[in-house]
Fold this protein.
Amino acid sequence: MPDWVPTAGALALIAMLYLAKSAIIRRQSRAPADVLLFVCLMFLAIPVTWAIDHGWDQIYLEPIMHWIGTPVGVLAVPAASFAMDLKSREQCGRLRSAWWYVLEFVVAVPAWVCFWAYFSFFALGWGWI
């Protein structure tokens, strides 16, 4: 499988989570129901992250890197963004600007993935050279 396929799959999953997050946040329902719905979506996304992880056969990565590292690397920014949206809706009574989504998708997601890859590999020891 070409290297761009898992990257495109991860970006598509993050984009779908952002669309779902936006739809959930825009509903005028109670926050606990919104949180439960988004948590269910995140749990459903975990096996998808395992499926798009292309490094299962790489001997220099520990299995925990795939089982825990990949879901954390892919799902952390959408989860944090959802928490910020809930807080903004409860405190201000309005939603954050759509520009925040673009900024998160273009800046925060790549920065987090790079940080998490190095942190999990070197600091947590989930890989070796």
Notes: The chain has four helices and no strands.
